[in-house]
Large ribosomal subunit protein uL22 (Leptinotarsa decemlineata), 105 residues
Amino acid sequence: VRGGATKSAEFLLQLLRNAESNADYSGLDVDRLVVEHIQVNRAACLRRRTYRAHGRINPYMSSPCHIELWLTESESTPDAPKKSSKKKTAVDKTKRVKASGTAAH
């Protein structure tokens, strides 16, 4: 995971581990768990303020979220994804030509 998404990815991984622990405590087979539904909704923003130079104040908002995660126990263990034998070929990109009204030579 690149850039600023590492914090979100670590938080989601922590949530999955917690869900796995809860399923194990409930007596479900952890190896057969499948993510059936996952949804992230925006929560209410918490408004704070940060003080700037010359007596100015800027908003300092946080953007929390609600994560909904449903795990179900499948009848069989999930299979590993199959690799396709087709080779991917690069698609030729069309070049844009600048249309100029006057040519100065």
Remarks:
- The CA atoms of residues 17 and 23 lie 10 Å apart.
- The radius of gyration is 25 Å.
- Residues 5-73 form a domain with the Ribosomal Protein L22; Chain A fold (CATH 3.90.470.10).
- Strands lie at 33-42, 46-51, 57-62, 65-73.
